[in-house]
């Protein structure tokens, strides 16, 4: 990727809405499957604050509308099923949604490996619904339900279009090339790498050799498992279902390149590439990966001529509205949005999956809304549409506590009752569910209840830092009287562990650090004192970390942009997880990862995912996991990194204990 491209990536990072390292304070165990019986949910709006995570395609509607305090939001709407202080108990429980990508969401609840990674997520958003039968070993639904200890409700929440975003070349001494529309066969050719030059497109403004459009096409795709990719590859398979060139020794189809499995070998991340061409195949165009979030594919394309990508319509309209192409639907070129700024998906047809009427453990993975020739049904219809889903535990009360489960249920009922397009609600580039799908969604939402357990306080709220182990009282954690703590917090490497930064894109190798220093200053209420987090450096006893990268055997590693003076601890729940640590600056900038490879190579990374767990001690453990995307750096820098770090946290006083509580 060019240096110019990396600057384009960096420019988008300032729009990060809520960058947090969610530090889950874990106690022990997971609930068991609900055995039937009366629900244990509380009065409407009496629940706790909750957090959901997953599909980036849902970020605009979840975080910007449904979970907001606006007139169209859960905490601001006068609708009978909202919680704005006028309904039910009069409470205003808050819902926070973190857009990480569908793959990260599915992984959080163990769909790939059967491990419950993120208990802070009370529900999961995904545009790739978990597949398979829940009782068939090895399927995504089987792994997920086993990991969380509950059946799940897979709930359609809205639909939208997948847009094609293009930035044709702008060559020296030429007029800028322009392309306003693209056909289904051209989309298939471009993303398989077979259509190699902009002048090959029928709608290119100048198709002459040596003309304004005579430049190679660069494909920009998502580097992580992605629900948007899952849906888009189904459309590509509808266009061409035969095996593709340059997909390895055993040529694969788009259908085989569609599913997410987690890890580098996930088919969802794979595309036809020159390196995989066999004798007699290719050449194919360059394909480059970009992470989700503010440095997203459409944002990158908007700043880099000669590139093309696909993206959820809401994201595309927000960051690259002038770069969206119309797509041929078999009759005419169709716009993905309507005059009301809804998604142009009213003609999309969805076939309900087997067992949908039960609402429990339903496999929606083969339900699609794309149709390359949908114009023959409705002349102006857009051909690439998709549903997107929320996954909730049917035994939410048993896993997360009754208060959290009450809010999840209330929120999803509100979402189902107030979809975009209903009651005159327009303007967000989504569209409400078709009637039969909405009815099935209502049935699924009704399954979110559970047998219940002791009432637990939960959700994002003020924290209390504590020098003694908190006491459990009234369903929450209470710091013993006189044991609140204000001052330095220190993190040191957990003995017999190594912090690693493993390359997941570009030059291969791993950076390993046997020492880390984390220093922060906080008030008793969890907010920053003066500089907040002033130091977060990695190294070895001799200084730098070791590296297996070819360019350098040593690396200097640290979290950039100090001090992180708006960082704070927040309390989540008396059950796992109890707390979160948000790393932030007063100036609104985000943390960066800085890596120096020798004296010459400097690599700056932006976060695509930051998460972790903290286990109350003694000693208190902090387990951090992160994914980083290269923002600025040379070809010697890995394009993306996966981080794993385990620390012990203390009060910086000869290892004195530290805890997080609510009161």
Structural notes for this entry:
- By secondary structure, the protein is an alpha+beta fold.
- It has three domains: 3-22 and 461-661, no CATH class; 34-160 and 349-370 and 385-445, Periplasmic binding protein-like II (D-Maltodextrin-Binding Protein, domain 2); 162-334, D-Maltodextrin-Binding Protein, domain 2, CATH 3.40.190.
- Helix content is 15%, strand content 28%.
Write the layout of secondary structure elements.
Layout: H1 3-12, E1 22-25, E2 50-54, H2 59-66, E3 95-99, H3 102-108, E4 121-126, H4 140-148, E5 152-167, E6 181-182, H5 184-191, E7 218-222, H6 227-239, E8 287-290, H7 297-302, E9 307-312, H8 313-319, E10 326-328, E11 333-334, E12 385-393, H9 396-400, H10 402-417, H11 435-445, E13 458-462, E14 464-466, E15 471-473, E16 476-478, E17 487-493, E18 499-505, E19 510-513, E20 515-522, E21 528-539, E22 545-547, E23 554-560, E24 568-573, E25 579-582, E26 592-597, E27 601-615, E28 620-632, E29 640-650, E30 659-661
Parallel strand pairs: 1-27, 2-3, 2-4, 6-10, 7-8, 7-9
Antiparallel strand pairs: 4-12, 5-9, 5-12, 10-11, 13-24, 14-30, 15-16, 17-20, 17-29, 18-19, 18-29, 19-22, 20-21, 21-23, 22-23, 23-26, 24-25, 26-27, 27-28, 28-29
State the distance separating the first and last CA atoms: 50 Å
Shape: globular
Query: What structural class is derived from the secondary structure elements?
Result: alpha+beta
Low-confidence stretches: 1-39, 451-459
Mean pLDDT: 86
Proportion of beta-strand residues: 25-35%
Number of domains: 3
Tally of DSSP β-strands: 30
């Amino acid at each position: 990727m060019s240096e110019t491209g990396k600057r384009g990536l960096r420019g988008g990072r300032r729009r990060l809405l809520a960058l947090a390292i969610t530090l889950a304070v874990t106690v022990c165990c997971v609930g068991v499957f609900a055995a039937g019986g009366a629900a244990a949910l509380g009065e409407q709006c009496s629940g706790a604050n909750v957090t959901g995570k997953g599909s980036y395609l849902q970020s605009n509607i979840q975080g910007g509308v449904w979970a907001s305090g606006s007139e169209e939001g859960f905490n601001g709407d006068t609708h009978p099923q909202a919680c704005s202080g006028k309904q039910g108990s009069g409470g205003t429980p808050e819902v926070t949604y973190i857009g990480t990508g569908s793959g990260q969401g599915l992984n959080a609840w163990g769909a790939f490996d059967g491990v419950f990674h993120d208990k802070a997520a009370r529900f999961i958003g995904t545009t790739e619904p978990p597949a398979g039968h829940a009782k068939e070993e090895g399927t995504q639904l089987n792994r997920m339900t086993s990991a969380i200890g509950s059946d799940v409700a897979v709930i359609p929440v809205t639909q939208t279009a997948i847009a094609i975003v293009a930035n044709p070349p702008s060559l020296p001494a030429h007029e800028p090339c322009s392309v306003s529309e693209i056909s289904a066969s051209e989309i298939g050719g471009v993303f398989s790498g077979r259509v190699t030059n902009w002048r090959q497109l029928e709608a290119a403004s100048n198709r002459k050799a040596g003309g304004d459009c005579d430049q190679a096409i660069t494909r920009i795709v998502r580097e992580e498992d992605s629900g948007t990719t899952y849906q888009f590859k189904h459309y590509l398979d509808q266009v061409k279902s035969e095996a593709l060139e340059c997909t390895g020794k055993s040529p694969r189809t788009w259908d085989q390149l569609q599913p997410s499995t987690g890890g580098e070998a996930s088919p969802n991340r794979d595309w036809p590439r020159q390196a995989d061409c066999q004798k007699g195949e290719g050449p194919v165009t360059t394909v480059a990966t970009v992470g989700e979030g503010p440095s997203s594919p459409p944002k990158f394309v908007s700043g880099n001529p000669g590139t093309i990508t696909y993206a959820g319509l809401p994201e595309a309209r927000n960051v690259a509205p002038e770069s969206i192409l119309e797509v041929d639907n078999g009759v005419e070129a169709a716009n993905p949005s309507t005059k009301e700024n809804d998604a142009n998906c009213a003609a999309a047809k969805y076939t309900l999956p087997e067992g949908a009427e039960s609402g429990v453990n339903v496999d929606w993975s083969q339900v699609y809304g794309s149709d390359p020739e949908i114009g023959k049904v409705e002349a102006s219809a857009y051909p690439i549409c998709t549903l997107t889903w929320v996954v909730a535990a049917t035994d939410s009360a048993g896993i997360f506590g009754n208060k959290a489960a009450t809010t999840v249920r209330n929120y999803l009922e509100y979402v189902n009752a107030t979809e975009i397009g209903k009651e005159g609600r327009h303007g967000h580039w989504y569209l409400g569910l078709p009637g039969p799908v909405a009815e099935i969604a209502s049935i699924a939402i009704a399954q979110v209840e559970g047998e219940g357990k002791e009432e637990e306080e939960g959700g994002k709220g003020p924290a209390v830092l504590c020098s003694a182990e908190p006491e459990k009282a009234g369903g929450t954690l209470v710091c013993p009287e006189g044991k609140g703590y204000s001052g330095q917090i220190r993190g040191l490497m957990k003995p017999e562990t190594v912090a690693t930064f493993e390359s997941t894109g570009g030059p291969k190798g791993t950076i390993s650090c046997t020492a880390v220093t984390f220093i922060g200053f906080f008030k008793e209420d969890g907010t920053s004192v003066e500089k907040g987090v002033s130091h977060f450096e990695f190294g070895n006893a001799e200084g730098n970390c070791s590296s297996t990268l070819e360019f350098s055997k040593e690396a200097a590693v640290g979290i950039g942009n100090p001090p992180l003076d708006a960082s704070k601890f927040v309390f989540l729940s008396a059950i796992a997880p109890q707390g979160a640590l948000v790393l932030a600056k007063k100036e609104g900038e985000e943390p960066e990862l800085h890596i120096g490879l020798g004296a010459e190579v400097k690599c700056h990374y932006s976060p695509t995912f930051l998460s972790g767990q903290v286990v109350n001690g003694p000693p208190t453990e902090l387990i951090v996991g992160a994914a980083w995307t290269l923002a600025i750096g040379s070809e010697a820098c890995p394009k993306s990194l996966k981080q794993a770090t385990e620390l012990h946290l203390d009060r910086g006083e000869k290892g004195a204990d530290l805890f997080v509580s609510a009161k």
